[in-house]
Records
---
Amino acid sequence: MTGASHPHTAAPHRPWPVCRGCCGIALDMGSARTRAWLAGRGVVVDVPTVTFAGTGALYPVQRGTIVDTPGCARMLQRLLADRLPRATRPMVVLTAPVLDGVAYRTEARTAVDVLRPRCVLTVPSARAIAVAAGADLSRPLMVVDIGAHLTEVVLLDDGAVADARRTALGTEDLGASATPERIAEAVASMLTSMLHQDRTSLTVDALHRRILLAGGGALRPEITHHLTGRLHEPPRVVPAPHTAAVRGAAELLQTAHTHPSTARHCLPTADRR
């Protein structure tokens, strides 16, 4: 929007790290790794998704599902609480799998409460990946995210999820219950299913643009080789595909932070009235 500002309209905040009175976290809790971006500091956490109790190591996220919400809370407390400025309550942008996203978001929000956030915004991982890749979201886009324990195929239309498929296979299954060829076949099968069920041209248009490939699987040449052999066009691999989701969430966090509608909520806790 252009034009003069209304005298009573709050001015948008400056980008981090210039705006030192605010705090923000972009968070991607995957089955294998948890990554967090802190305002003004970049990606400061990239660790296994694990928590500890009296019985030893526990894995609170499995196949894209939070199975131990208190365990996630303990992990976030251990990893992030001491890194946050005192007397502030962070804005959090949290990535979530597209399918089963409602249940994931509910449990994740409960876990994130340990950080005393002033607000939590959730975003589909596929959209965060597209943002990190600088993709044109005004056109149909197909995103394939091959993670450690889960693979999602997501069709975006104008940035919103139009269709999605998933399989409980990922890079951690290689050599055990899966091969690179099997993962590629699963992706191709999901794409075929979407094509057959789409009564519009969205899926075809997205495939003509080439799929956007992210996740740790995008770093495995044996997977991309088999996947390329099953597609008409080779996929476009996102730069640093394993961290694309958290980097996209960080961009969305900064956009939300500087938006005038959020400015009135961006005061340190001690200064809020």
---
Amino acid sequence: MLNKICLDEMKGKKNLLAFSYGSDSSALFFLLEKEGISFDIAFVNYGTRKNSDIEESEARKLANKFSKNFFCKKAPFFDSNFEKNARDFRYSFFDELCEKFAYENLILAHNLNDKFEWFLMQFSKGAGLLELCDFNYISKRKQYILLRPMLDTCKDEILDFLKRENISFFKDESNYDEKYFRNRIRKYFAKPFVSEFHTGVKNTFAYLQKDINNLYPCEEKEFNGILLCDIKESVIAKNAKKLGFVLSAKQRKEALKGDCVISHKLGICYIQNKALLFLYERSEKIPKKDRELFRKANIPPLLRAYLFKHKISLKDFLCFLNS
């Protein structure tokens, strides 16, 4: 049920499992145990349901039983756009843990149904090939590797495993609330389709990934938090997501017009027919000598504060651009 490439990536590494005590993360917990993978647990308590505190307590007990470090954070109340705000909150928490405790991998319990749901959600909004298939086994984040070892496993197989192994889990009633777009996609489209055609869905995603690899070979590099990629709309959007930004259709068009700052946080510059993406740093007083060096090297003005603040050698940066 677990992808072998992901398992090989976890072995001997410091791993953190995003755990909710729902069916998927519970199954993944025990599958990782069976494989002898060492990992700790990160749990977010949103406090939106009557079982939230009970789930946190039981998750803590499970972690103690299996000698796992347990990290928990309570989310604030989100009065609007819950799905996006909750996602941003938990990934901020995961980023914080991975940086503080040097976790090399963050393990997520996404499965084949989740991947197909994402595909349909992006399809409904308008998306390119990279966005449609942006649920991968392995994704590189700034500080760690994100792993999804159950992407070939459908929900029915997960539930069968839990029943067969007599593993208990909590049901999140919010997953059935149709005010959330994802839940409507899940109930009326993704779940019935994957239940009947899961082998075909899995194979189709594999073929699509091969096509992506052929169409976009080695399209990106990274240097001190700066991502370099081809000037292609879908590729830029994909790299923006690595830095934590999901670009809207309007922002994607803005990004292609020239050097800019998206949402006051994402810097995008163009140099040597490549796009550079980075977390924007506000201008600060740069010594005249350094300003002149940046100017002579044709460093885009939006990027200069980032290079200066992070003490990045201009020589090393130029070598990166030309490598």
